[in-house]
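Chapter summary example: a protein plus 2-deoxy-2-amino glucitol-6-phosphate.
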Amino acid sequence: MCGIVGCVNGSSVLPVLVDGLKRMEYRGYDSAGVALLRADRSTVIKRAGKLVELAAALDESKPTGAAGIGHSRWATHGPPTEVNAHPHVASWAGGSIALVHNGIIENYAELKAGLLTQGRTFLSETDTEVLAHLIAVARSEGKDLLEAVRTVLTQVRGTFALAILDSTEPGRMIGARRGSPLIVGVANDAIYLASDQTAILGHTDQLVFLDDDEIVDCRSGTYTVIDFEASVQRHEVHRSELQLEEIQKSGFPHFLLKEIHAQPEAVRDILRGRLILEDGISHLGGLDTIMPFLPWLDGIDTVACGTSYYAGLVGSYLLERMTELPVHVAFASEFRYRSPVVAKGTLGMVISQSGETADTLAALRELKRRGNHPQEQRRRGGGNPVIGLVNVVGSSIAREVDGGVYLHAGPEISVASTKAFTAQVIAQLLVGLQIGRNRRLPITEGQHIVRALHALPDQIQRILDRSADIEAIADRVAGYDHVMFLGRDALYPVALEGALKLKEVSYIQAEAHAAGEMKHGPIALTGPDLLTIYLCPKNDLYEKARSNLQEVKARGGTLVIVGTEGDTSLREFSDDVVGIPAEAPIWTQPILVNVWLQLLAYYAAVKRGTDVDQPRNLAKSVTVE
Ligand code: AGP
């Protein structure tokens, strides 16, 4: 997904821009560029392709500037060419505007038509270039830069995070946001703009999070925020907890492997201070605001995308058992458009690693709109609450929910989500404990779950210590072009997630089915050239799972099995068998089985030589529809 970095420091900004763009490579992009300003000149350099192309051009020309903006583009309007790369430039009588943009301008066609009739000429096929021209026209009409930006943005429909330079004002940079994140970094002698705080890590840990429809006017060391009515806005300055080494590989060959191996520590971080064994409960400060709603709670609606959706699906099996409430899970991209019915008494739950996924943010807003029942307003003074399970602190979703649980999984750099999935399932167990123990979940079961969670980090480590077992299997899996994952109950969504992980990093076509559904069609695929990965740890449905294994075996299917450690009977079906710790109950089996599947996907991808951390066509955070 596109990345923005900007800086005004009165000296030299190029290293900040290049460093920032490198830090955001993980988000996925296909072109990049920078614009630099100094008193007597402005320079714009951009290249299609990876950052190395731009870096080579910068090494050659060595541009300097006291203010500058940089952008990595994930193509939406117009192919990933140099001319479509940002920054986009528009001239006016006195100078020129350079601008970078994340988001989509929905009314760009009508705005562009108006500019064309004024004789403006366009170089690119992008929606973004329209904004540069509109601001240039406003400047030629005599408006101050800040006022020009403000009046232009009030005409715009769509989403944007912007960084803007004006060649006539070399010590100044303007930022603005609506529906796409933009952070202001504050230092004594410099002001930074970034769409992702990793881009300016190491330069400052003092961050201001802009709200939608706000504009920031930056000069060396000072900034002012206004809203679209030109009223000055005050914001709290947050101190970022992020450390530089957290976004480096620390000796691992890929971020994906680093993050898989970071899970024991991530689990300890998310559990820290949140479990009380003697009462079999959790304590989540982020739910305090919604606890008064519990007496009216009749159900839970979960919305999310991709891996976060599958984590929500795992959670639905576990939450229904813990709370005895109906839990519905929907793809955010479907939920936002299907005119959903959100009954009164429903707790909304939004799950997102980045907290910036456009579909999930839109679904959150739809959950709020449709859960705002007038009679609820009268009866208890409010509509249905919505909570968020989010990893990135201060993200858009985290700031729009009524409460929630930060995942504390640490920055997830690899495009494929791994430790966030684990944290998201755990967060739902914590939510389930807090709600369930205020309903009918017995203390003994609550204590059982608390113990299972406390045991989880060491159990994950035991699996990681045996990575070589799955690496050998992955070498064989990498040779298949079609793989089917099967699982039952809470392991069915793990099968779905395993299929997603394998396909998104190794490009192997993979699908998943509820194992009980095999006989209703998918078994037609079973045969020697289809590899079946079957999830069957020992639990209440184990015997049913074994009969599915028989069905696959009887039809000549090849199997890889994730079962329970020591279950030697599985060797009857395959030599490729790995297991999770026998003591793990159903509450934590999905997480442990999934660790094996994460490793399987990783090693299969390495074997197939794909771009493990930045798979083709993918972005880390899909902040556009
Ligand atoms: C997961 O491996 C994918 N990268 C993708 O499905 C991701 O989970 C999805 O885009 C949702 O992202 P979010 O959790 O940041 O909202």
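Key point: The pocket of 2-deoxy-2-amino glucitol-6-phosphate is lined by residues 305-308, 352-354, 357, 360, 415-417, 504, 621-622 (CB under 6 Å).
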